[in-house]
Amino acid sequence: MNQGPRQYAELHLHLGGAVLPRILYSYLHKIKHDNLHPDKLELANQYLRRYRTYEQWERRLTKPSKSLSEYLEAHKIIEPLQTVNSVAYMVNRLLRGCYIFENLAYLELRYCPYHRIPKDGTLSQQVSRMADIVMAIHATAAANFREFPIVLAQVLCMDSRLPKEVNQAIVDLAASLPEEVAAVDLAGPDTFYAEQEDDLLLCLKHAKEKRGLKVTCHLYETPNGCIESFLPYLDRIGHGIQIPLQYPKLLPQLARNKVCLEVCPTTYFRTGTLQTYGQLKPIFQSCFDLGVDIAVCTDNSGLHGIRLPLEFERLLTHKVINFHEMELIRANAFRHAFRWPGIINRREEH
Ligand SMILES: [Zn+2]
Fold first, then answer.
1. Which of 12, 41, 45, 199 could bond 297 through an S-S bridge, CB–CB 3.0 to 4.6 Å?
2. Residue 275 and residue 269 in contact, taking contact as beta carbons nearer than 8 Å
3. If you measure from the C-alpha of residue 239 to the centroid of ligand 1, how many angstroms do you get, rounded to a whole number?
4. 8-342 architecture in CATH?
């Protein structure tokens, strides 16, 4: 598969933050009025009572936060709506937007399947429900490929709030579905990382050493999530911006190991981690200087009301990067993609 000019690869997008609030709100009405999913009727009614207008709903989902943990609360509202019955609808809408408005050729979609299933029954019953969600998303991407030709790779997220057994089950599920799942991630509030370090480290090791999976991890995003012991098990780092800012001595080792940072500019302003684009400049500059690849990503494009080309445009406008650097970063995303099947940069061949 060839990558044409101006096409983009998105390496860091959460299903919980990928669907536009407008589409989610219409979905609540569909559940209520079309009797779409009777099991979700109570939840839809509850949300529609609490958020009586679309504007109230949008304001709740997109309000700025003082911390990463507070920011992640919006996902808790959305995740129960993204069940096995609804992911096809939501992923279809997502792919449509990514194709028409972002010119994406490749999309890595990440989510924690455990947050999207009923919690009764045994762990093995829960694993089978999680597998159903993976299969539903895979089937949706395949069915939509003719109309929206985007290569979709799934990344299953462990969560810092979940017990080790559940996180390991998520890793094992990913390993058991090599065609459908490209990698695993560790997400959730990083305030839990220090106290859960041993268990989380075991899960990362399990994924990399025992299961041979590609691994990324939300790490060095805020000052709370700087756990050096996780680094040897990672192919990429979700965010990693505290490394150039506070731990630059780690950069040469990342360059040597070809570990790419998934930098999501808008997120840092939403979580209160950074205040200005000027603070991003030294992050990009140090990485360019020391040969650490960066891929620019949106993290939660639906909730941020921003699309990948606009992330680049804002970095250009604020002189964080120049056009030449933008092309390098755009190509980095294809090169570090876990499943991109094509040629890195066709334009250079002509
Ligand atoms: Zn993220």
1. 12
2. yes
3. 8
4. Alpha-Beta Barrel (3.20)
